[in-house]
Backbone:
């Protein structure tokens, strides 16, 4: 079925693997309630000149055993239930990851979350979790973070700032009470873009404006407030020290370029708009 605004589509890839997860509310005319979910991993090391978009009937499709991507593993509803990653009616899945032998499912849940992604039993803390599932038969990997191993409201802070798929994304609450919605890292340049949001805290009745930060060697600056509306409509940013890419609420892809001018080394400007995602 074609995707609409309520559907979820996540994908990731390495040099030799591609993973895809789809979540769609059931639009069946037969009254079925459970959402449609699919997770699959392909091996993409064998190139193929075949273009499916130019062959709607599929008559010219080559043998998968000879060329083109081949399925490494496809997960049924039973598999998703077994690994406890089936999202059902309240998806908390926030991303996918891959390494040599696993596909990783990254989940996130928060007490103050609202909208169709809000669960029926919200956690006491901001909880992030990663589940690693092997391509072959073997144990699953689970790493979860929501508190510092106790029952208090303290948060776990990793000693290392490294980012690995097998580690729960604790960086999302490193600046608590700010929650890091998204980040873009350029490790070679030592630059990190962080989009942080502070929910309205009931205990102190305050609502702080979302902020977009740029961190470099030895300093941190806050970018213009209007860039949040320009870049964070889908809660995702990417880029390096020269570019920052996001999407606005009109579904335009927005690219921000970092200029090094003679008078101002921090001049930001939107240079491309109008590319539909």
Residues:
């Amino acid at each position: 079925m074609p995707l609409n605004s309520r559907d979820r589509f996540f994908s990731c890839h390495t040099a030799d693997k591609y993973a895809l997860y789809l979540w769609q509310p059931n639009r069946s005319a037969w009254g079925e309630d459970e959402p449609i979910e699919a997770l699959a991993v392909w091996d993409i090391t064998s190139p193929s000149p075949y273009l499916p978009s130019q062959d709607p009937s599929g008559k010219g499709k080559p043998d998968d055993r000879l060329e083109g991507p081949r399925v490494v593993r496809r997960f049924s509803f039973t598999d998703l239930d077994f690994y406890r990653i089936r999202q059902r009616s309240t998806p908390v899945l926030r991303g996918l990851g891959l390494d040599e032998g696993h596909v990783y499912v990254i989940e996130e849940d928060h007490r103050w979350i609202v909208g169709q992604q809000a669960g029926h039993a919200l956690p006491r803390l901001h909880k992030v979790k990663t589940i690693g599932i092997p391509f072959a038969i073997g144990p699953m990997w689970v790493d979860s973070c929501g508190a510092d191993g106790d029952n208090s409201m303290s948060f776990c802070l990793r000693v290392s700032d490294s980012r690995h798929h097998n580690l729960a994304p604790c960086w999302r609450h490193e600046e608590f009470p700010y929650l890091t919605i998204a980040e873009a890292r350029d490790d070679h340049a030592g630059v990190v873009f962080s989009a942080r949001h502070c929910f309205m805290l009931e205990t102190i009745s305050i609502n702080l404006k979302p902020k977009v930060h740029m961190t470099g060697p030895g300093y941190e600056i806050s970018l213009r407030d209007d860039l949040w509306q320009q870049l964070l409509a889908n809660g995702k940013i990417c880029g390096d020290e020269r570019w920052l890419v996001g999407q606005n609420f009109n579904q335009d892809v927005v690219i921000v370029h970092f200029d090094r001018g003679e008078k101002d080394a921090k001049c930001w400007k939107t240079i491309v708009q109008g590319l539909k995602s």
